Every structure is written in C-alpha cells, then in structure tokens.
Please model this.
Amino acid sequence: MTTRTAARAAFVAALTGLTTTGARVFVGRNRPLDAADLPGLMIFSGDETVESVFANANRPATRRYKVRVDIMVKNLTAAETEADTILAEIESALFASVSANTLGNLVNGVVMTAVGEPELDDTQDKPCVRVPVFFEVMYS
Amino acid sequence: MKNALADLAAMLADFGDYAAIGTATVRGIFDNAYGEALMMAGTTPTFVCAAADVSGVLEGAAVTIGGAAYTVAAPIKINGGVATLQLMESDA
Model:
C-alpha cells in the first residue's frame, strides 16, 4: 500500500463515526445518496503537488494531496445549521491533537484550506444543502 | 387554452386525487416522481389542478394528500387555467 493510499484510508477513518454523520461516509462515489445515507460525507481525491529541491532520485519530496469533503444534508429545518455542526465535528476529528492531525503519525499534517460556498436546492421533497470543504494532506 | 382545461377535467375524472388545501378539497393529479439534486436522491411532489380551484392559495399553504402533509414550496405556476403546485414535505 502506498503512503497516499494509506493516508486516504486514515483520513476516511478519522471522519467515520462522527456524531452526526456516523458511518455514512462515501469515498469516490458518483451515485446520489438516498435518504438512509443522509446526513453524510462524500470524500473525493483532488490533485497532488510534489515539491523537491533535488531533481535526482532518492531525495525526499514533500507532497500535498488535496482532498475534498462534501457535507451532505437534507432536512426540513435548519439544514445549513446542521451542516455547520458537521463541519465543527470534522475539524474536531482532524485538529484536536497532534496525533489526529498527523493521522496517527502517518503524515506530516492535515490542513484545511477552504470551506466552499454552500449549495442549496429546494426543488425536492426536502431542502438539500451541500457544503464542500477542502483539505491538503502533507506527506513525504 | 380552453382545451387544456377540458383535457384536465377529463383526466381528473379518471385519475384525479383529492387534496385538502386550507378548508377546501381540490381534485387534481398528484405526482411524486423520483428526483435528484446535489447528488441527493428524493422525490419531486407536484399537484396539478384547475387554477380556479386554488385561486387564493399562496406559497407556504398547507396541503394534505392521502394523509401525507405537504407545503406549497414555490409560487404556483398557472398556464392556460391549469395550476401546478410544487410541494415539499411538511413537519405537520
């Protein structure tokens, strides 16, 4: 297993079992979530940058693996507030300690780079809110 | 435009559902088809009826169809004397 694969698995594990979303965590899923899957998290890999001072082999490189987490909520009342609660739970899971922030000393650290604009839709049986949150997982 | 209403009347005679809207009982066609938004699956409940039957109904009005409670979720679309109510589930 590559470090990238292990880091992704550890990132997913860290966000599994949160108070509000529980085990409803989906990685790389391209199919819509059903009512039983909500509220939930959808996790997608982004691009990865590699920085190295030296061009030759066997030199350490710093990698920044971008990960997007979509907070998915469908709720009749205060859906955006529920998304905010989930965001706080995510931050607590990833930043509460050095061990949490390094995914159990597997990576150098996890940085939250942005919280995207909430997307809203009220054309269905209940209002939907999706909030994208962007992270970088740094490892060598 | 009279044809649309005539067609609706014929459809309601065969396929109509009854909705309680305020104190009135309105006959129309209820549809609750599958829908998706923002990668979340659900349904898109709508109720089609004669516009004259819902002339005083506004967004936010309570609607009960088959024992299920809904709310009118958007301004009512009226075309040729036919009204389409976009519905949303209700806590009530």
About this structure: Chain B has a mean pLDDT of 90. Residues 3 and 52 of chain B are 15 Å apart (CA to CA). DSSP finds one helix and seven strands in chain B.
